[in-house]
Structure formats: C-alpha cells, structure tokens
Fold each of these.
Amino acid sequence: MARRRPLRRSGEKRHAVPYLARPPTAAVVSLDARAAALDELREGLARSPREIACKYLYDDRGSQLFEDITRLDEYFPTRTERGLLEQRGVEIVAAAGGAQVADVVELGSGAASKTVALLDAALQAGGRPRYVAVDISAHALQRTREILTAARPEVPVEPVLADYTRELHLPPKPEGSRRLALFLGGTIGNEEDAPAVRFLSRVRAHMEPLDFLLLGANLVTDPAAIHLAYNDPQGVTAEFNRNLLRNVNALAGSSFVPEDFDHHAPYVVEKRRIEMWLVARRALEIDLGSIGGKVRMRKGEGIRTEISRRFVRDDVLRIIDAAGFTPERWFESPDGRFGLALGKVRSSLRGF
Ligand code: SAH
Ligand code: AVI
C-alpha cells in the first residue's frame, strides 16, 4: 500500500515514556518493581517443581533472540498469524469499528512487525489510528518504534514500558475514538486459564462499550511440528531459554551458569502445551544473590521457564467471555494452526 503523508494531531504527546538515548535493560522498570521481581523469583524457585516466570525471558538479548526465533523455518506461529492478519485485517478492523478505530493498543508488542497489517486496514478504512505499544522490554519497544516509524510514519507511536501482569497504565483514549486492544502471538498461551482471565479482565477495565479485543491463539495441531518449533536444530530457542538465567543474574546478582543447564521443551500431549525447562546437567549449588539464600539442584532436576498452550476455538472464546468480552468473530488460518478471536466489551463480567 502507498505510504501516506504523516498525519499528526496538534499538541499530541508522542511518547508515554520518554525515550533515552540508550534505553535501560528493562526487565524491571522501578525500585518497587525490582523488589516485587525478587519476591516473585524467590517464590517461584522455592516451588516444586521450581519455576521462573517467562517474562524474565525478555531482557534486551532475549527480545532479540525471540525476534530471531520468529524468523526460523521451524517456528511457524508468527508467519501463520502474519498471513491471517494480512488476509483478514480489513474484515477484522471493519468488525471492530472501521474508521472509528483510532486507538490500537498492543500488549506485549515485541517487534510489532505483524501489526502493520491492522494499522493499514484502519488507514484504508479512512481512520487515523494511534498505536500504543506496551512491553516489559525497552529493546522490544525500540524495535517497535523503528519498524513502525519506517513502515508507517503517519501512525503516531506511544511506547509504554510496563509489566502488564502488574498495574497497567495506559494513555487515555483520544476523545470519541474506539480502542482495539491486541494480544497477539499466542502469548495468552503462556498462562494457565485463571491468570489469563484475570489479566484480560484487567485489560477490559481500560475499555468501554464499543471497544474490542483481538486475541491471537495457537491451535492444536501436529505434535511433531509443535515440538520442532521449540527445538530448532540451530539452538536459537535453547539460547533464548538459557538467556533467562543471564537476565536473573543481572537482576539479582545470582550465580546461575547458563551452560550448566540443558534446554528441554517437550510437547505434553495431554496438557496440550509445550513446557520449556532448564535441566541441571550435574548437581549444582547456586547463590541467589539479592533473592536470598542458595538453591541446590540434583543432576536432572529442572526449572520450568514457560508453558506455551495450544487451544481449540471454544477454549479461546470461553476465556474472552469470562474476561468480559462477547465473542463476535473468529478468524482461523487455512491450515487451522492459528486463530484470532475478536471480542466486544460487555458491560458485565462473568467469573471463570
Ligand atoms: N506480540 C509479539 C511478541 C510476542 S513475544 C508477537 O506476536 O510477535 C512476547 C512479548 O511480550 C515480548 O515482547 C515480551 O517482552 C512481552 N512481555 C512478556 N511478558 C510481559 C509482561 N509481563 N509485561 C509486558 N510485556 C511482556
Ligand atoms: C511469546 N510466546 C507466544 C512464544 C511462544 O511460542 O510461546 C515464546 C517462545 N518460547 C519459545 N519460543 C517462542
């Protein structure tokens, strides 16, 4: 599509978070957040089995490694979702309000390369969308800004550096506009049902009647293909997984040695999910730095670092319904591997 002349509303603030010349390595964004992160890490590492939340995968290097993963032949979700957004973007935006969609808010935006298709659809509908990118990673937000500014200079970008599992502050909606919240990439599958519904309910609290949510979800497909997507022979996903320990070390001054751990990512058929683990190659004693204390691990003991669920359509519709969105439309890739649910804000919440 031809580029349009930059449109900017007068007096508009472009960035919710001022951009620093060199953005911080931002797994955490404040002292309070650091204390909360240390508590969360302590609690997760004391669990059986041990766990470290997947948001710690995304320091600067982790965000870059994720972008590398999305370009691997084996990792099909990104290109499947991109194809779906490109094919059905116009329909999606039309169903969400067409030209009135003036506030596109993406949670966990990453490099946001796929989002251009939706912004284009809003521009084509005659709208003037603003794009609000929320991410825990300053590196990801920087990439969002680079990609979007180069691709669609007419779309103002407002980056919000935030952990969306905690308090969520969004810039107010432009007067009279409709908000379209995006949660793409299948990231909803990185949570169990209850926290997924809690999170989407909090997003819903930032929305009004006539606003919409577009939720992307990985669907159940061939287990071998799913397995390969998380076990690429080049070892990029293994490096992404191990890098989480570098991020924890930087945050807490802990003494994890990433090379002491094997990447283990089986597709657990009965749970319909990939489980990503770091498994100790030998008996280890790890000093936890500011987290406090030490962890002793036996050879073969694991730390779970991520779940990545596969859904069927009704699972996804049930989740958005429970979070206060009435399912309006369902879009599925021709190969049935990826689905997008469009939900409209409902005024009453239903529990899960
Ligand atoms: N939506 C993009 C990126 C998916 S990767 C895509 O579809 O390709 C997940 C993204 O969510 C990363 O950019 C990561 O930094 C961000 N993220 C993960 N946990 C987060 C959290 N708790 N708060 C904010 N952003 C988070
Ligand atoms: C961000 N999230 C949806 C990705 C996934 O597939 O669950 C993260 C990822 N983990 C390993 N590879 C990619």
Amino acid sequence: MVVLEKAPAKINLSLDVLHKRNDGFHEVEMVMTTVDLADRIELTLLDQDKIKVVSESRFVPNDERNLAYRAAKLMKEHFQVKQGVRIFIEKNIPVAAGLAGGSSDAAAVLRGVNKLWGLEADIDELAELGAEIGSDVSFCVYGGTALAKGRGEKITHLPSPPPCWVVLAKPAIGVSTQTVYQKLNIKQAEHPDTQAMIKALEEKDFAGICTHVANTLEGVTTKLHPEVNQIKEKMSEAGADAVLMSGSGPTVFALVAQDARVHRIYNSLKGFCPEVHIVRMLGNRETTC
Ligand code: ATP
C-alpha cells in the first residue's frame, strides 16, 4: 500500500515576537499561509517494524534526525503500531529557508501514516502531536491560512488571501533560527499590526494585506545577511506589491497581483539568487497529491 501526501511550504504574512517565556521559547503571533511549492511525500507500508527515510537531497539527513522520521516514530509510539513505513521525500522546498520545509514534511507524514496504518486519529489530534516535533508542525498539519500563537502551536483558522502570485527568492545562505532569536532585541524590533492583517484577510483586502506584511525577525537576519535587503529592493523596484522575509529567513517573498509583473520580478532575481520560484498562494487547506 502506498499513500501520497503533499507537503506545501508556508510563508509568514506577519510574524511578531511578543516576549521570551520562562521555558526558553518565545511567545509569537504569526499569520501564515501555504503556497503551492511543495515536497512530495510517498509512504509505503513495510511489514517489518522499522522506519526508513529516503531523500535525494544532500541537505537533508536520511536518519532519525529527519523531522519526517521523527513524525513516524511519534505516531508509532503513540498508537503502538507494529508495522513500519518507508518514507520517500521528493525535496522541492529550499532547506533552512524560513519556509517550514521540514515541519511540512513531518506534518505530511503524520497525516499519511494515519491513513497508511488505519489509525483514524482526527486532524486536531495530529496537530497536537505535531507540536511535540516542532513549533510550525501544527500549522502544517492543517495548511491553509491561520494565526499561530503560543510558540506557534495554537492555531486559529483564517480566511484565505485573495489569489495572487508569490515570487520566492532564497540567497545562497542558510539561516539558523536559533541564532536569529538569540540576537533579537524585542523592544527595538519592528512589530506587525497582527489584528490589521487579520482584518485585511477577513475583508479579502489585497492592498490591506500588502500594507501590513511585517516580520519582527527581519531586522536581525538582514543585519547578518545584507543580501536579504538587496533582494527586497530588487523585488520592489521590479513592481512587487509587497515584499517580506519569511520566518527567520533568508527567503524573501513578493506578493504580486498583476500577471505582467511576475516575470519582471523573477528575471530581476534570476542570476542574483540561486533559487527563485514563481508560485501561487494556496491559501486553502489542500494537502493531498
Ligand atoms: P522553519 O521555517 O520552520 O524555521 P526552515 O524552513 O527554516 O524551517 P527546514 O527546511 O525545515 O528549515 O530545515 C531546518 C533544518 O532541519 C535543516 O538543517 C535540515 O537539515 C533539518 N531537517 C530535518 N528534516 C528535514 C526535512 N525533512 N526537510 C528539511 N530539513 C530537514
């Protein structure tokens, strides 16, 4: 038996860091939405009691460090499953990019082995389990558009943004989320107006969404990697409606309403950035292949 799952990347329309908690995590408020750049996860039932990860990406570990492996292990232990699974990951999402690629793979495995092993857990239970793997996994279990609070695991679903193009550009650097949080000065950083972003989504107000994109972590990453600002400038000059760094970076995204501008923005980045993608905002909760 084989189960296929789509593991879409996310972007942060807004990301606010409120304060550092006593448990070491940061309290955040993030408005996230999925885009149609996705890893493809193929799960094959194994009769033996083992988990095997196969990925052709040299940036992703094929052992128990892989978040997809950890998701399968968690499900096995939680539901006392005796069967195994072979997890094949077709990696299309840039790694360590601020696009939650690993979290989305883990979420896809939670959904997928639930079907493969006939466990019948509901999606809220999978999202709750996902929080044990990583802060973005709960959101990725659902996909779509949502407000994520707490350390990212408290999810409130939101209306999807109006359809538009998204240009993603990742410079040839990886960013450690941990380092960015360590260097963040919460008081001095820029903070988004999360409520205004939510209102814009509720009103399907594309201009409002563009006005309110903001990311508290952006200032830290741009200081470490000035390329991020150069990408933002190039995108703006080429006619993007909004530009922002996603997550802790370094990927920058442009929101673009007009078809005619998308290729201009893409071309302005091609050659400057090794990874540039034109994708659509997914917005809805589409997670099957
Ligand atoms: P986030 O936006 O949630 O901070 P990210 O997009 O910045 O995530 P990932 O692509 O998820 O980062 O990768 C972060 C690290 O996790 C990498 O160093 C990578 O080696 C490791 N990793 C483990 N499993 C995976 C996976 N399935 N896909 C990608 N990276 C993985």
Amino acid sequence: MLDRRAFLQLSGISLASVALPQWSLAQVKTDIEYHYKLTAEPSSAELIPGFQTSVLTFNGNIPAPVIRARQGKPVRIEFTNKLNEPTTIHWHGLRIPIEMDGVPFLSQPPVMPGETFVYEFTPPDAGTFWYHPHMNSTVQLGKGLVGAFVVDEAEPVDFDIDEVLILKHWHLDKKGEWKALTRPRYAARMGTPGEWGTANGIHDPQFSYPAGSRVRLRIANVDNTMTYNLRMKGTDAQVIAIDGNPVSSPYPLDQHKIGPGMRLDIGLIMPDEGQHVALEYLLGKFGFPVAGFTATAQTGDIHSELPSLPINPVPVPDLDTAETINFVFEWEGAISPTDEAGNTHPVFWLINRRAWEGMSKDNIPEPVADLTLGHSYIFELRNNTQYHHPIHLHGHTFLVLEMDGKPVTPFHTDTVLLGKNGRAKAAFVADNPGSWMYHCHVIEHMKTGLMGYVRVS
Ligand code: C2O
Ligand code: CU
Ligand code: CU
C-alpha cells in the first residue's frame, strides 16, 4: 500500500495544494465509550515543506489527536509520559474536579518520565476546548504539545461539517531548525513570536466542502504568544461560540481577537460551487492566511440557516451578593532573583504587586485570593501595561459583564483578553473546590511572573 505522500507524488498532485492534516487516532475500545490512550513523546514532523523538525508530540503526530467527548459522559485518558522530563496534562476550559486539572503540585504530582497517569472526568459543558502540559510550558507547548478537545453537545447539533483548526506559529527558520522559543527582551513585552504560521501543523491548509453545506469551524489559538485577529473573506460567517461557550445570540463575524489559549467557533454556509472562502488574521491592516475553503458540487440540501447551540449549564452568579475583587496586572522589569543553583529567573510581570514565587513540592505560595465555596465573585481586572494579556482561570467559567468600562452583552469565557490598558469585569460562582491556576496565557508572561492561583474552599 502506498502511503499518502508517495501516492500524491505518483499522481503528480502538488503537496502544497492538497495538504490536509492527518489526524492520528487515540481512541481505544473498552467499557467506556470515550476512552483514549495518549502519550507525550519526542518525534519529528515536516512543518516546513521539505524539512524535518524535531518536535514534541502527542501520540507521535503533529497535529495532536483531537480528543472527542460528549457532554455529561465520562472520559478516560490514559496518559503516558515518554518525554525525558516530567509533565502533566491540563484540560483547558473544562470545569472538572481539581484532581484532574493537571497542574503540578496544586492538583497532582508531576508525571515522571515513563509513568502513566489516568485522567478521568465528565465534561459538564459542550464546546471547543484544548489540552496541553502545565510544566516547562515554553518548551513543551512551544515544541508541539498542544491538542484540541471537543465536547459534543448532549443532543447532537446538525452541522454538515465540523472542522477543528488549531493555530500555532512555530519558532523555526526556513530550514525547519529551531530558533529561540523565548528572548528576555520579548518576554518583557508582547512575548517572542514564532515565524511559521500553521493551522493543524500546516501553513494555510485548504479544505473543500459542498456548496450550501453548514460548516462549524472550531478555531483554537494554541500559540504561546500570538493574538490572532480573525476575519473571514468570501462569505458571511457568524460567531456562534467563544472559548467553548455558545453566545446567547450569534452575530456576524467582522474581526475577532483570540489571545493564546482562546477559541472561537464560527458558523457559515458554503457559497456556490467553485467559490472560495478564506480565514485570515490581521496584523495592522495586512491579512495573513490561516486556512482556505473551496465550495465543491452540492451533495445535500442547500441550507440557508445554521443550527443553534444550546447554552452551557454554567452556574449563574448572584450579582447582588457578589464580592468584588480587584486584580491589577503590571510590568516590573527590575528584579532578577537568583536561585541556589545560580540560575536567574527574570520577573517582568506582577499580579497585585506580586510575581509568582515559583512552586515546588515543598514550596506552595499563598493564593492571590481565597474564595468561599458557593459564593459569587466579580473579578475587576485592570491591565496597566501596553501589551495584551489573556487572563485565564482554571476550573470555572467567567461571565463577562463589562469590557473597558462599558457594559457588553454578557458572554461566558475561561479567558478574558485585556488589551493595552484594558479593563474587564467578570463574574462567576466559586462552585468548584480546589486551588485553581489564574494566569496570563502568554506563556512567557506566565513564566516571568504573571501567574497565581485562587483557592476555593
Ligand atoms: Cu491553558 Cu493554565 O492553562
Ligand atoms: Cu486552563
Ligand atoms: Cu500577559
């Protein structure tokens, strides 16, 4: 049997024009329906056409397998660490018990090389989530340990096409050799951007869908650094969900920014046969390609409406009794503490005048806030810096009430994107006991201070 690459070469089809992600399979057949085996392991991948790059992968493949689960149904993931360093896996955006949150020391001991840890939980919300290690993140995520986690609605929703796009820029030169994943002068600013833009590990992949079909694109920003300002050309698209959570009423996509860690689900109906639709991101006024979609011959009905998504069962905060807590995010370039081994750990960012003190088995710092189980809170976030910060809370889902001092149509999210000097008011019920990470998802910001945790008890 020919492999796909050899087949394409024999048939004279240019690889660049037909390259599509080869999702690897992780599912195993057992007593529970959603049962997966997942490894983290070094491997190599052809990210830049014609060149091999040594990468870190889930199950040996870029892109990582999409883990698909169903709302309200148990999932079991047998994770084996085949890296030569410890790791943990975090399920970003899922409201699951602390024991399964995948944060070293706060929720579990690190999974050592060669060890297996079984993650088992039942996702309460449907939507587009993702997974990644929560150790040595600049390297582990930067070199490829990022994957999509899709929770299908308890009652199936009727799209014809359901596509995952995980967006990442790789820190590679033109020959696929690694460049620095972090540089202090960038870590102290917007973060160190990668050079090679991909969706599902491919630069500008091209998809073909039948004319008139209803398409759901699940876009996840799994990059360490980049904020993507997305837009769609060639058709009208609707914003249907933000960070996994359906919006109360879908609205047309004009431009929408997703910071690192954030997701956007968009719905669209494919135009007439032969027409082309392009997903782009904007840097200044220039558009850069993310992925393209060409309408092929009609195969089913020509649809004119998108199905609607049920709202997730996120607890409703009681705004009358909610306690307000202020968080100020600031820049501080001066300190450079040195540990016993003589390594310096630059600190550039602070939460409420505090930088993360670091964490190890015997050294767990105090939480940035102590919350009472079952109470409602309003987090008032204030970014006193010139850079974007996607502020992420584990184990809970925010209801955003205000952005930059103005009321917004409330929406659910696990990550609030603060722009330059931006502000936000986000409410939630502290209904999930445990110590929950609370950090900027620009990985270098997190690693240089912008990280803490809240304790719910
Ligand atoms: Cu994507 Cu602490 O998480
Ligand atoms: Cu998370
Ligand atoms: Cu940040």
